[in-house]
Amino acid sequence: MDLNLPSSAAIKFEEVKEMDDHLLQKLVEVISNENFKRPFLHQAYFNRRLRTTGGRYHLQGHNIDINPKVFEKYGMEELINVIKHELCHYHLHLEGRGYKHRDMDFKELLAATGGSRFVRPLAEQSPENYHQYECQKCHTLIFRKRRMNTKRYVCSRCGGKLKQLM
Questions:
Q1: In this structure, what DSSP letter does residue 118 have?
Q2: pTM of the model
Q3: Residue 47 exposed, middle or buried by CB count within 10 Å (0-12, 13-18, 19+)
Q4: Contact in structure between 70 and 78 (CB atoms under 8 Å)
Q5: pLDDT tens column, 18-32
Q6: How many CB atoms lie within 10 A of CB 148?
């Protein structure tokens, strides 16, 4: 994708190493015109406060937030998929059609444009944040975020007793 900036310098998005709000805005506008055949008339910007989500479409202001970790961790291809996902919400909402994840209009437009349904994990899920249990019978390891009562619950594979490791 080439992009014409006011300075008449063309940018190839695949070669961009650093992304700022201005470049993100231009990228969203290009993707909207090329894939949706409709203009993007609002603001797109990076929001560092987003933790686990790739992006967010605001119903009131029609702006789009993008998590900068998507570009930092996974590069341009994943960023473009997230932008397509958020633009599906944007265009469907402005047309008065079903813009929610569960709506068929959303699913069809997402498939047609090649956007992704989910972003790859952005937050590190380390085993230290989990409670670890081991089955006494089949020795299966079980990781849970919330603690569970080992006297009340058993292994789902074999029905054996569980022992808390950490």
A1: S
A2: 0.70
A3: middle
A4: yes
A5: 889 999 999 999 999
A6: 13
